[in-house]
Design goal:
Elements (H helix, E strand, L loop, with lengths): L1 E2 L1 H9 L7 H9 L8 E13 L2 E8 L8 E4 L4 E7 L7 E4 L5 H4 L13 E7 L5 E7 L16 E7 L10 E15 L14 H13 L7 E10 L10 E3 L4 E8 L6 E5 L4 E6 L2 E2 L5 E2 L2 E3 L4 E7 L5 E5 L3 H5 L3 E6 L33 E14 L2 E6 L13 E3 L4 E8 L5 E5 L4 E6 L2 E2 L4 E2 L1 E4 L4 E7 L6 E5 L2 H4 L4 E6 L1
Parallel strand pairs: 2-5, 4-9, 10-13, 12-21, 22-25, 24-33
Antiparallel strand pairs: 1-7, 2-3, 5-7, 6-8, 8-9, 10-11, 13-19, 14-18, 14-20, 15-16, 15-17, 15-19, 20-21, 22-23, 25-31, 26-30, 26-32, 27-28, 27-29, 27-31, 32-33
Bound molecules: copper (II) ion.
Length: about 475
């Protein structure tokens, strides 16, 4: 349900008279006078990543990450969103199964929060687990817009029953700062399991040959990195005791990057992906997270010392992407030891014998990069077509109750974090292998690889699919589904 700004102003205008009985009666005839459960204020502010690295960016409630919002599954919430900036904004409730008009994507018909205005939204949070909220505006070539800013915050939706069944939990929001354009970039090619497919490489090479511009298109790089708004070594360490089991909820809030995370001498037991419990709680030496992915993992503290939990890339870690873990009774300089290479394979968290339900229909997508085709920016096409932000035309019509299989073929060397709005999906094929039982809302698709996932059309309304890499979604990599 959406309460528009005009109605809201009407209802709050009645507030000063609320004491008088006649006025109360009149107020009841119009919009109900309720106080919002939560209030988010979008405004520019400063983040002290370190005493000598203070950045100015757009924030929620003046902080980074934005406040942790704890919802109860199935319990309606009312949220006021104030926009103190000069440009329209959108807050997207990532990973939730809610109506299109409050989901926060303009492509689905959600209204913008006007500059220096506000919107009141209300929805019933679901499903339980680790979600998040972030801006959904297009940034294009403006690195002060969209997810390049500090507009990201964690959401935890408590289950209806047995909330908080853990000893201790820590939320970690991974984020980069001081973005700048470069020609070409360094993709983490060692991240994912699976091998490149020859036919897709050939398709990619053909697209490169056709490109009129032979120089590489723009990519975005960053100068500064932080976990929970602090560069490695700044702020308080995570203080632990030997034998403690700590549940980490890790969010990659990057606009464009794939991240890794390791804790020297420790391993992660993955219990949930994108907030959804996994069938197999596999133990892994390190985590890989695509843009907008979440991993919930338990670390057993059994290797006393002072350690760095950080990114495998020395450059990124040395410029802030890490946090110190300090055992009780231990002091001194935090140590880093690089774990052995490990390729991320979603299927290890799936059901032991993979037997996904058969889909009613399969839709295939071939993803091609048109090198530097848009004024130096790469353009992305799905089945030969780039999404038009002007017409925002739905490309696929789906029918309620049907199970759809989406099959993606990546004819580029980039890793794409594919995201479907308002629906969860089940991975059915990754890195050339069948799988089942892993429920997600973002999945990384490796360079020149394929991935398949199924979703059930059970939440009517316009539904956006896109790559979560801001530079990809802004330059064509989107598709809109509509219900029949
Ligand atoms: Cu992408």
């Amino acid at each position: 349900m959406l309460i528009d700004r005009r109605n809201l102003l009407k209802s709050t205008a009645l507030l000063p008279f609320a004491h008088a009985p006649a006025q109360v009666a009149r107020a009841e005839e119009s919009a109900p006078l309720t106080k919002a459960d939560y209030s988010l204020r979008i405004a520019s502010g400063l983040v002290e990543l370190a005493p000598d690295h203070i950045v100015s960016t757009t924030l929620y409630n003046g902080q980074l990450p934005g406040p942790l919002l704890r919802f109860r599954e199935g319990q309606r919430v009312v949220i006021d969103i104030h926009n103190d900036t000069d440009t329209p904004e959108l807050v997207h409730w990532h990973g939730q199964l809610i109506p299109s008009d409050v989901d926060g994507a303009a492509e689905e018909g959600a209204p913008y929060v006007p500059p220096h205005g506000m919107s009141r939204i209300t929805f019933t949070p679901k499903p339980q687990g680790f979600r998040f909220y972030h801006t959904h505006v297009s940034a294009g070539g403006d690195l002060n817009r969209g997810t390049y800013t500090g507009q990201a915050g964690p959401v935890y939706i408590e289950p209806r029953q047995n909330p908080g069944a853990y000893d201790r939990e820590i939320f970690l929001v991974l984020k980069e700062f001081a973005p700048a354009f470069s020609r070409g970039g360094d993709m983490a090619t060692e991240a994912l399991a699976g091998a490149p497919i020859k036919a897709l490489e050939a398709l990619g090479e053909a697209a490169d040959r056709e490109a009129s511009d032979k120089t590489k298109g723009y990519e975005v790089g960053y100068d500064l990195f932080a976990i929970n708004g602090k560069m490695l070594g700044q702020g308080e360490p995570i203080r632990v005791k030997q034998g403690e089991r700590v549940l980490f909820h890790v969010l990659n809030a990057s606009a464009t990057e794939i991240r890794s995370l390791a804790l020297s001498g420790h391993s992660f037991k993955v219990v949930a992906l994108d907030g959804n419990p996994v069938p197999t709680e596999a133990e892994v030496p390190l985590l890989w997270l695509g843009t907008a992915e979440r991993v919930s993992a338990i670390v057993e503290m059994k290797h006393p010392g002072v350690w760095i939990m950080g990114d495998l890339a020395d450059d990124d870690r040395n410029r802030g992407m890490g946090i110190v873990v300090e055992y009780a009774g231990h002091k001194g300089k935090a140590q880093w030891s690089k774990p052995k290479p490990f390729r991320w394979d979603y299927s290890q968290f799936g059901k032991a014998n993979a037997s996904p339900a058969a889909p009613d229909e399969t839709i295939e997508f071939t993803i091609v990069k048109r090198n530097a085709a848009l004024g130096g920016f790469n353009q992305w096409t799905l089945n030969g077509e780039a999404f038009s932000m002007e017409s925002m035309k739905p490309k696929f019509t789906i029918r309620q109750g049907r199970r759809y299989r989406l099959k993606f073929r990546n004819a580029s060397d980039d890793i794409h974090p594919l995201h479907l709005h308002r629906h969860s999906f089940e991975l059915t094929r990754v890195a050339g292998k069948a799988t089942s039982g892993v429920i997600k809302d973002v999945v990384m698709l490796g360079g020149f690889q394929e991935v398949e996932f199924d979703f059930t059309a059970d939440n009517p309304g316009p539904t956006l699919f896109h790559c979560h890499q801001q530079l990809h979604m802004d330059f064509g990599f989107m598709a809109l589904f509509d219900y029949a």
